Amino acid sequence: MSDTINVALLGLGRIGHQFANSLADHIEDGDKPIKIVAVAERDPESEAAERFKNDGVPVYTDAIGVVELGEKVDIIFDLTGVPTIRQALRVKLQEMNNYHTVLVPEVFARLLWSFLEEGVDLSGPLRTGY
After folding, report:
1. Domain ranges of the chain
2. Is-contact 56 100, C-beta < 8 A?
3. Stated pTM of the model
4. I want to staple 37 with a disulfide (CB 3.0 to 4.6 A). Which of 6, 18, 70, 130 is the partner?
């Protein structure tokens, strides 16, 4: 078992993009044992997707495809804000008997983000739920 925490980020829209950049910057600056191993974004040419692509991180256009990485991913941050995607992620993890990977909803990502950056604007629609 590796000491590195492998993370996937799904949904790099307005909030997801900002969170992803903040997390990536903190990982780089702090030399943390955390690695972003995949991101999912519908638009692979977006600024956010390009940043990760340039860093050698695989960019998926289908969030469910990230689950195929199996236990190589420790944490999946679902920042899509789409309840049907979250449900599909849960179902796919169960179908694969993947009881290792933790699916983290947007509400937890926002909590973590508030610790990463001061003055972060956490306003806007928030879909809670696990």
Report:
1. 5-116
2. no
3. 0.88
4. 6
